[in-house]
């Protein structure tokens, strides 16, 4: 009999699979009974976590928030879940909006930050304003109507979204105008540093305390980390900056900070995602198990003392055979 019951949304996503791998890798394995949620049947995540329930596809026209929420809460009650972990970014605004409703009606704690904090990080221009107003020296940022003030090179990007989707580097006004002509909801940001000085940084905050921090260099494929390095030579200024930023933001649980070092070696942050990272399982390989730390923090269990490992982690494809009828 498991001691605790925990749900994971979008259990087949890169984030969801990373959460499952991490919980299997710690001493909570066997003590925590997992329940999965997803939007697509027949996935690897559903094979790993049984039962996994399908939710109404909230991204499909005609599916209402109320329908989605009632289906989720019914399963939370049925399974007796104490904690719900978020496995995909598009659920963050919804779960933030309804986190208190879910807690009051089911007793389940959703590991998601308050709605105003989530909104501040979902919109990268609002993120910029927050960083600027807190003296955290973000890259210079402009809205399309401020195009005359842009300095080059610059990056045109959507105000919402993750994974470098829709990003375009421009080096002249003509290139800027062309990039801005393709759609709405764009912003322009000073290009700083290089891919060689880019870090993806994870931090867990509970009660105004940063309980774990890890800063990795990485390379991307299709917008996701395919290789990561944990380097002893990471400048101390990176971790110091991550801690200061996270405590200024004060999320509930995980935050992922994407930053680059500029020519002067200063961290310049350009994106914050308030969820577990797509590199969660990689971080666990480096000795920092964020899902374990989060659950133990919420459950009041003794906190782990992580021993970081240094080197690199490579991501690769793997197949899973599912027998007939399974």
Keywords:
single chain; 326 residues; alpha/beta; Rossmann fold; Dna Ligase, domain 1; D-amino Acid Aminotransferase, Chain A, domain 1; 3 domains; six-stranded antiparallel sheet; five-stranded parallel sheet; 15 strands; ATP_grasp_subdomain_1; ATP binding; metal ion binding; ligase activity; ligase
Describe this entry's structure for a reader.
- This protein has about 325 residues and is an alpha/beta fold.
- It folds into 3 domains: about 5-110, 3-Layer(aba) Sandwich (Rossmann fold); about 140-190, Dna Ligase, domain 1; about 195-315, D-amino Acid Aminotransferase, Chain A, domain 1 (2-Layer Sandwich), CATH 3.30.470.
- The chain is about 30% helix and about 25% strand.
- The chain has 10 helices and 15 strands.
- The strands form 3 sheets. The chain has a 6-stranded antiparallel β-sheet with strand order 14-13-10-11-12-15. A 5-stranded parallel β-sheet has the order 3-2-1-4-5, with helices on both faces. It has a 4-stranded antiparallel β-sheet with strand order 6-9-7-8, sandwiched between helices.
- α2 (about 45-50) links the parallel β2 and β3 (about 50-55).
- The longest helix is centred in the first third of the chain and has 15 residues, at about 65-80.
- It is globular and about 60 Å long.
- The two termini are about 25 Å apart.
- The mean pLDDT is about 95.
Report a brief summary of the structure.
With 326 residues, the chain is α/β, with parallel strands linked by helices. The protein has helices spanning 14-24, 44-48, 65-79, 92-106, 115-122, 124-133, 173-180, 236-249, 280-285, 290-299; strands spanning 4-8, 32-38, 52-54, 83-85, 109-110, 141-142, 154-158, 168-170, 186-190, 198-206, 209-221, 224-230, 253-261, 267-273, 311-314. Helix 3 packs across helix 4, helix 4 (92-106) runs antiparallel to helix 5 (115-122) and helix 5 crosses helix 6.
């Amino acid at each position: 009999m498991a001691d605790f019951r925990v749900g994971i949304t979008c259990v087949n996503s890169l984030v969801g699979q990373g959460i499952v791998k991490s919980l299997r890798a710690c001493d909570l394995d066997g003590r925590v009974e997992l329940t999965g949620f997803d939007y697509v049947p027949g996935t690897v995540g559903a094979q790993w976590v049984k039962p996994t329930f399908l939710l109404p596809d909230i991204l499909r026209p005609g599916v209402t928030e109320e329908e989605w929420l009632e289906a989720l809460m019914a399963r939370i009650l049925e399974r007796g879940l104490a904690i719900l972990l978020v496995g995909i970014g598009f659920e963050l605004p919804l779960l933030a909006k309804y986190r208190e409703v879910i807690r009051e009606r089911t007793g389940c704690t959703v590991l998601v930050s308050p709605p105003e904090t989530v909104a501040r990080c979902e919109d990268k221009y609002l993120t910029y304003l927050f960083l600027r107003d807190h003296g955290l020296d973000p890259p210079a940022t402009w809205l399309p109507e401020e195009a005359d003030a842009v300095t080059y090179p610059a990056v045109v990007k959507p105000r919402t979204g993750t994974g470098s989707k829709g990003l375009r580097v421009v080096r002249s006004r003509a290139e800027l105008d062309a990039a801005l002509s393709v759609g709405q909801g764009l912003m322009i940001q000073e290009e700083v540093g290089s891919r060689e000085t880019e870090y993806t940084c994870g931090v867990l905050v509970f009660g105004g305390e940063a309980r774990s921090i890890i800063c990795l260099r990485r390379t991307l494929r299709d917008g996701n980390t395919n290789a990561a390095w944990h380097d002893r030579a990471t400048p101390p200024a990176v971790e110091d900056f991550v801690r200061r930023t996270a405590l200024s933001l004060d999320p509930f649980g995980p935050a992922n900070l994407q930053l680059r070092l500029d020519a002067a070696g200063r961290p310049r942050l350009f994106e914050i995602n308030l969820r577990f990272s797509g590199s969660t399982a990689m971080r666990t390989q480096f000795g920092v198990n964020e899902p374990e730390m989060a659950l133990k923090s919420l459950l009041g269990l003794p906190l782990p003392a992580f021993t970081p490992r240094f080197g690199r982690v490579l991501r690769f494809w793997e197949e899973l055979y599912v027998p007939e009828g399974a």
